[in-house]
Description:
By secondary structure, the chain is of the alpha+beta class.
Amino acid sequence: MHPAINIAVKAARRAGQIINRASNDLDSLKVASKQPNDFVTEVDKAAEAAIIETLVDAYPAYGILAEESGASPAKTGDGEYQWIIDPLDGTTNFIHGLPQYAISIALARGNVLEHAVVFDPNRNELFTASKGGGAFLNDRRIRVSKRIRLGEALIGTGFPYREFDKIDLYLAIFKELAQKTAGQRRPGAASLDLAYVACGRYDGFWEFGLAPWDMAAGALLIAEAGGLVSDLRGEANYLETGNIVAGTPKVFLPLLKLIEEKLPESVRG
């Protein structure tokens, strides 16, 4: 395992301990609202601080892009490496005691995702990937499912709560897919949804209005597990646009085609 993955795993497990301890006393949790339907807790902040401390201790020259503290440039060098961190993806689930949330950490070199960790502290499931090195769940190699027909596919998704202006478009696509797939699921933690595509639990995934830290690690997991990932126009700009489509090679293409056919010209990828 690459040294950067080892450090990211250490950071994720440290954050997981903080989150697990806090989950035993949710009634005392201090919750603030960043915007409608977008919450932050003291646990998010503590977990993020622990992750950043662990990563910076090992790689002080690398930049940071984190959900709660934002971006900080690399201290030395050309700044080409950046950690992309979501300390608690699925905060709303966590607040309500719904055990569907994860820690997501990715390392990018320029615009290329190099390493990824998604850790589910409830199930003790650790997803890891390195570019060119495959994807793993608890050290077991994983692949996307072998499903080839959209009509038989189970698709993950998420409501565009950050972009309410796209609700009508989202619902139109959702309705179409409801008739042309085996089903859609919306558990509420995009990093885990993407990891589930990588290990074959889902056959595809789509969502609007995500942040880079929601997608980075999960996207690399899928790519290294043999799947395909793009924005809504079939391009590789999902980290910039916040819109993502992913799936097995055979499911991805009809899923993307259906979505593209619904898009107005005004919607970027």
